[in-house]
Amino acid sequence: MHTMNDDYVQEKTRRIVGREALRRASRMVQAWREDEQENARLAKQIALLVLVVAMLGAALFILF
Questions:
Q1: How far, CA to CA in Å, does 3 sit from each of 10, 17, 39, 57, 63?
Q2: Model pLDDT for residues 1-35, shown as the tens digit of each residue
Q3: What is the C-alpha separation between 63 and 50, in angstroms, rounded?
Q4: What is the 3-state secondary structure (H, E, C) of 3-61?
């Protein structure tokens, strides 16, 4: 048999567990966003490197 105190404790426990689950999900999303931003930075650097190499290749082709 549940008493009012048991119901109160269960409700508070659910609330605490729910908040922690939301915090955990928020941290996961933030980590994912940071990973995506890092990937975007790396992609830009690679694209720039490919552009420079292509330009050097074209310059060497034209000169020789």
A1: 11, 21, 54, 80, 90
A2: 667 788 889 999 999 999 999 999 999 999 999 99
A3: 20
A4: CHHHHHHHHHHHHHHHHHHHHHHHHHHHHHHHHHHHHHHHHHHHHHHHHHHHHHHHHHH
Using DSSP, state whether 2 is helix, strand or coil: coil
CB atoms within 10 A of CB 9: 12
Best CA proximity match to 31, nearest among 23, 41, 42: 23
Q: What is the pTM of this model?
A: 0.67
**Burial of 35 (C-beta count, 10 Å sphere; 0-12/13-18/19+):** exposed
Q: Where are the domains of the chain?
A: 1-64
